[in-house]
Amino acid sequence: MTILDRYIIRSFIRNYLLSFVVLVGMYIALDMIFNFDELTRNMTGSDTGNGGGDVPLLQILRLIAQIADFYVYKIFAYFIILSGIIPVVAAAFTLMRMTRLNELTAMLAAGVPLLRIAAPVIAMGILVGMLVVADQELIIPHIAYKLAREHDEIARPRLASYQIRAMEDSTGSLLMAAKYDPPDVEQNIPAKMHRVDIIQFNEEGKPLAYVQAKEATYNDRQKLWKLDGGVRQTGLRPDDPVSTQQVTQWQTSIGPEEIGLRRRASFVDLLSTAQINQLLAYPRNYGTVPLLRVKHWRVVQPIMNVVLILLAIPCVLTREPTGVKAAALRTVVSTGGCLAVVFLCLQVAANPPSPSLVRYWPMAILWLPVFVFAPLAVWLLDRVKS
């Protein structure tokens, strides 16, 4: 690594951190503005004990702490969304600054080609792209239930409880629960269901047995539900023998991840690829298309982040210091067009035209921008005059 490489890398890292703070900060600020009513929903005058008058300072400080706790976790999710824009901004500012200060002119006079100058920027773009993979696979799955909170749930120590009306597992059994308490990973509190009813069916789709329990607690290590007061009854049809027996556990494909997916479709974005593969292995699950869409996007996204940088570099890598504004405009147009196509493909990938294409449609559509824009980026880089 030469002195020139180290200089460019330091400049890129500085601009990357600055872009991260600015873009993520703007995202948080806009999110707070548009969801301010939900964030302050639990902070009303009737709760203060002073007849609906002024809000005590202590409650204001508590609300600020809750909002801070909410958005500290959200930063990891916002980084995934902005992971393609941040390195593009950092690369553009790095090269534009060098052009503006005539540093590129000096490097060209020393016999350094423009593409050689851009090499450290491309290498750093690939390196920071790995941060997206680490964030998605190692960090977000462990704080998924923090990220799944809505804006009006910031005051709750865990996600709100709700009723499970009817949910089918991989064997065709139907689950119903009067109340479901999502797990709290931070406090090590497992998921729990209250007043559980399970109807089991045979291979012909006819009712086989009925299981009821007062409570069911999920054992994450054994991947099953521990039943409290569980009773299994057979003889639901006139020709079946009647029997009653105690049951202490229920082995099923329905876990907290599956229940969370049924409750909120966006919860699939918070799962790791290993968890998605486990859900896809079940014959019946929340939905094959959303799971495949997220799974293939996990592979495509780091590649597209690098392609965005390759599209931006030819736009700003110029020998004329007076063309910085035009270079910035070209960068916005090229990368903006690419992001628009990617967004469109993400929407189309969720709607296969035929059930027979469910397994292949998300992969084909999500890889389409790579095959279109990667050759275009290479062609633009080849046209750079140094």
Strand segment count: 6
Question: What spatial order of strands do you see in the largest sheet?
Answer: 1-2-3-4-5-6
**Share of helix, binned:** 40-55%
Task: Give the total of domains.
Answer: 2
**Poorly predicted sequence stretches spanning 5 or more consecutive residues:** 44-52
Q: Rg, please?
A: 27 Å
The geometry reads as: elongated
- Oligomeric state: single chain
Mean pLDDT value: 86
Largest sheet: 6 strands, antiparallel
Helix vs. strand class: alpha+beta
Order of helices and strands: HHHHHHHEEEEEEHHHHH
Share in β-strands: 5-15%
In whole angstroms, how far apart are the ends?
21 Å
Helix tally equals: 12
3D structure, described in words:
This protein folds into two domains: 3-148 and 292-382, no CATH class; 159-263, lipopolysaccharide transport protein A fold, CATH 2.60.450. Helix content is 54%, strand content 15%. It has helices spanning 3-34, 36-39, 57-82, 85-100, 103-109, 114-139, 144-147, 256-263, 273-280, 288-316, 324-349, 361-382, and strands spanning 162-168, 174-181, 192-201, 207-219, 224-234, 243-250. A six-stranded antiparallel sheet has the order 1-2-3-4-5-6, covered by helices on one side. A hairpin with a 4-residue loop joins strand 4 (207-219) and strand 5. Helix 4 packs antiparallel against helix 11, helix 9 (273-280) runs antiparallel to helix 10 (288-316) and helix 10 (288-316) runs parallel beside helix 12.
Strand-helix topology:
Layout: H1 3-34, H2 36-39, H3 57-82, H4 85-100, H5 103-109, H6 114-139, H7 144-147, E1 162-168, E2 174-181, E3 192-201, E4 207-219, E5 224-234, E6 243-250, H8 256-263, H9 273-280, H10 288-316, H11 324-349, H12 361-382
Antiparallel strand pairs: 1-2, 2-3, 3-4, 4-5, 5-6
Helix pairs in contact: 1-3, 1-4, 1-6, 3-6, 4-6, 4-10, 4-11, 6-10, 9-10, 10-11, 10-12, 11-12
